[in-house]
Amino acid sequence: MNHLINARLRGRPGLFTLRWLDGRISAIEAQADTLPPPAADSTGFDAAGKLVIPPLVEPHIHLDAALTAGEPNWNLSGTLFEGIERWAERKALVTPEDTKSRAHRTIRMLAAHGIQHVRTHVDVTEPGLGTLQAMLAVRDEARDLVDLQIVAFPQEGIESFANGRALMSEAVEMGADVVGGIPHFENTRDQGVSSLHFLMDLAERHGRLVDVHCDETDDPHSRFLEVLAELTRVKGMGARVTASHTTAMGSYDNAYCHKLFRLLKQAGLSFISCPTESIHLQGRFDSYPKRRGLTRVPELDRAGLNVCFAQDSIVDPWYPLGNGNILRVLDAGLHICHMLGYEDLQRALDFVTDHSAQAMALGDGYGLAVGRPANLVLLSAENDYGVLRTQGHALLSVRHGKVILRRTVGEVTWPGAQPPEGTSRQG
Asked: Could you list the active site residues?
């Protein structure tokens, strides 16, 4: 296959033909009319009026912990902190082979849903960093399916864990792409602030990106975001810095947030919300009224800040569900965040495509434009709204000009009767 006809593109009327050569997009041509389907032996594919987008993006997941829920014990309270305790138990059983096997299985789940760019956090609070070494191998082994960014993630803290600073530095030297942190989990506020200064200096010194688990709590006094944002502003690193979760923002008072947003806009950092995981983990210490436990996604978006959605976990101590489908998370996120207005529905895919690519600093390596990598996904609807409303599927995934996935959606039949009004014969 080297071309795709009768494709719809986001934000552009009419139908298009996309062509590629040597793994890069060579032409995007407007069609005057619908073209006949290509012959069976052709190198082309008929999009049949469906939507073609650059690949879906997963900007925040923990592949090293995936598929471990209940091993050896379940997180019975559903809290973030018990999840960390359960993971510490499972971490004692981890081997490089175990890590690689689960990571590859999870990557195939992601790729099956049209995801080709993934940022995974890898726990580096581990003497010897065997898990990180295994994930660095996975990064290379899985390159035919996904581009993988690896975050050096100090799950149990930088300052509060023995040799935490040395382990972070070693992880970066080994090849981690992104420097992580978890300031709200450090033993004291002073340690949290110190950890942010350390990780930002480390990233600046080595030219790495930054992605911090920041204020992942309902505590309104957890205000490490302001520290991260100010460091980002002072260092001029906005395009390289991401704050993940920031769920405490949902508990901040509006007066403080008004001041905070001024700083956030000056800093220019990105935000990642994990709505399914956060709605599950947060609000656990409330009776009623019970907080939703999410960051201020619509407010961040309306303020012009870059914000996107991610899955976070797939069947691990923090979240017992998940199947790799980022469109499921998009659906849940828009519901939870009260973002089902007309304009939001018309641009829903922004939160799992372009915004996520910006957070991952993919630059010219992402997007449908001549000269860029021939990475694209055909979805089972005509536009953003249709994809969301029908719980759309990835029908075709092309990576560097090669087909890595084809899906045939099952047929629904109504023997002896007409289908109910408004029901399609295709599921």
From this structure: 216
